[in-house]
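Reopening this one. Same input as before:
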Amino acid sequence: MLIRYLAVAICFGVLLPTLELGARQPNVLLIISDDQSWTDFGFMGHKVIKTPHLDRLAAESVVFPRGYVPTSLCRPSLASMVSGLYPHQHKITGNDPPRGTDRKEMLRHIKRIPTLPRLLAKKGYLSHQSGKWWEGHYELGGFTHGMTTTGRHGGPGLTIGRKGLKPIFDFIDAAGEKPFFIWYAPFLPHTPHNPPERLLSKYKAEGKSIHVARYQAMCEWFDETCGELLGYIDKKKLSDDTLVVFVTDNGWIQKVQSRGSDVRSKRSPYDGGIRTPVMLRWPGKLKPARHETLVSSIDLAPTILAAAGLEAAPGMQGLNLLDVCSAGGKSSRTKIFGEIFEHDVVKIDDPAPGLLYRWCILDEWKLILPHRGSPVISRKRKTRYRDPIWDTPQLFNLSVDPHEKQDVKGQPARISSMSSDIERWWKVEKP
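Same output, byte for byte:
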């Protein structure tokens, strides 16, 4: 019976149940790009930015080009990845606490929610944090090892990648035969956009914005670090025993004439802020493929837990993407949801007061539903303005308008139906 199952599984390229077969539990490497548009990879079709290492990873992976994060700001997005919960569930909805509030007050949520490191520890996993980590000391998230001990958004951990990968290499070496989970969230291609000159020179051109050139070079720098890390996994002969997961925390569209991001990327409900490719590589277990299935970063935690032989924690609404892969990309899911909040949390224990938008994607249709207009806080956090275009629902057909240039008019029934879907997902009273 076992031989027959193996033959069928190999023939159709489905996931093999490693735990039942007695194989070791897989290591897990989670690679998180920081502030990079879904378009800005070679394997996603970019004509200028070079990402050869991630292109190779894509060729060896199941790629979901229509992946999304539920929110387009780093701290709440990362909290969703580590917990499998939407921001309104884990309540880490912004980067900073209400003005005048001690930052430590926000740390109570990471202590109470399930996290991948804590759950994986039940199966004997060691875990290492590096790069972006807003939730205080790495141990508060359940990591057994890590780099961040203090700092607003990563402190000492932010040196990873920019100053080598030795802390991760040392962790891998020390793990021995124990399965491990690595959180690799380097401060790349995030600002400051200060790439090595050898890379910047490749992207400079007469008449080209230096700001765009710097950002593009940063994307290649990030790719180089991924290649170095994946190369070390290969060198240690761990590739066949390692599930590699790739995602970005939120998008970034570089302004042409100045530093900073375009208004339709980071912090916005547009695809420039929330869309990301998602990749899964597990040699011998997952057959490389490319699926247009809608997936979300809330799917990552259930997927990683399933690979380790664990059930999803209560409250997790994501899919096990291993099942989606084994079904050839087919999924029972018909729609995905997300939410956008103020940069600064309004109430630490209540997500509703800081809510700006909820959004839904159903097949090719996307609805952005404003909650109370669009207050935008300046960098100095002193002034506000409202962009009236965001004060009413917006509907887009992503199949013909992937960059959301044209709000589709004359579709009241569709807007009403998708608005009802959003309300059923998370009902919030109007302020």
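So the earlier flakiness isn't reproducible anymore. For the record, The two ends are 60 Å apart (CA to CA).
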